[in-house]
Each structure stands twice: as structure tokens, then as C-alpha cells.
Amino acid sequence: AATMGNWANAATTGYRANAATMGDWANAATTGNWANAATTGYRANAATTGEGANAATMGYWANAATTGEGAVAACLGYGGKAKAGKGGAIILAHRSESGDLLGIKSAMVGDGIKPDTWYELDEAGNFVEV
């Protein structure tokens, strides 16, 4: 499923089912093993559930969440948050307010990262619970 436009949403379910959206406040959600969700836009969110299911977002204050063994939540925009379940990982981009990339921070759940807990980066680029 793919959508484009502000407040446009896409949702799928099933093995390797994918959802993608583009636009401000546009959301993508999937459920199923190896199902992926991707969004781009201001406050756009991506969520997945399932083994190996991944969520990726790009845009200011966009969030990514996953559950499932081996799932990765990646937020690549300014001010974003990410969370993953047991056996997963999170990736956050450290950006200046103008969007310049300052670094990337990633971790597996269990390496100082709690499962099912939102994280963002502080001004120094370190994970902090939200």
C-alpha cells in the first residue's frame, strides 16, 4: 500500500506486506513477518509488528516503532523518536535544528536500551528515554 498527501495513511497486513506514505502527518503501519513501513514528512509515523518487520521515518519529529524479534526502528529526521521490542534495535539520526547531519546512533535492545521504550537523542547525541 502506498499513499501520498498530508494526513494520508497506509496500512497492510500479511507476510512481507509493505506500507509507504509521503506527506505531513502521514502514517504507515504493517503487521506480519518481514513487513515494512516507511514514511517521509513532518510528524509522519511508521509502525510495524512481526519478526524482521522494520519501520523507517524521515522528517522533523517523525517516529518509528517496531515489535518483533529482529525488527529495526529507524528515525532519520530531526527530533524523532524510536522504540523496538525484545530482540530488536533502534537507529536515530543526530541532526541540528537546520537539519544538518551530526551523527548516527544505533543500539540493540538490551545494550542499555529497554524494550518497548521510546528513545530520542539529547544535544550531545546520546540516547535518552522519553
Order of helices and strands: EEEEEEEEEEEEEE
Helix content: under 10%
Global outline? flat
Rounded to an integer, what's the Rg over CA atoms? 13 Å
Q: How many strands in all? A: 14
- Number of DSSP helices? 0
What does the largest sheet look like? 7 strands, mixed
Strand order of the largest sheet: 1-3-5-7-9-11-12
Instruction: Give the terminus-to-terminus CA distance.
Output: 30 Å
Mean pLDDT: 95
Detail the poorly predicted runs.
none
Written overview of the protein:
By secondary structure, this protein is mainly beta. Helices cover 0% and strands 51% of the residues. The protein contains no helices and 14 strands. A 7-stranded mixed beta sheet has the order 1-3-5-7-9-11-12, with no helix packed on it. A 5-stranded parallel beta sheet has the order 2-4-6-8-10, with no helix packed on it. A two-stranded antiparallel ribbon has the order 13-14. Strand 13 and strand 14 form a beta hairpin. The protein is flat, with a radius of gyration of 13 Å. The termini are far apart.
Secondary structure blueprint with pairings:
Blueprint: E1 2-4, E2 9-13, E3 18-22, E4 27-31, E5 36-40, E6 45-49, E7 54-58, E8 63-67, E9 72-75, E10 81-83, E11 89-95, E12 101-108, E13 119-121, E14 127-129
Parallel strand pairs: 1-3, 2-4, 3-5, 4-6, 5-7, 6-8, 7-9, 8-10, 9-11
Antiparallel strand pairs: 11-12, 13-14
Features:
mainly beta; five-stranded parallel beta sheet; 14 strands; seven-stranded mixed beta sheet; 130 residues; single chain
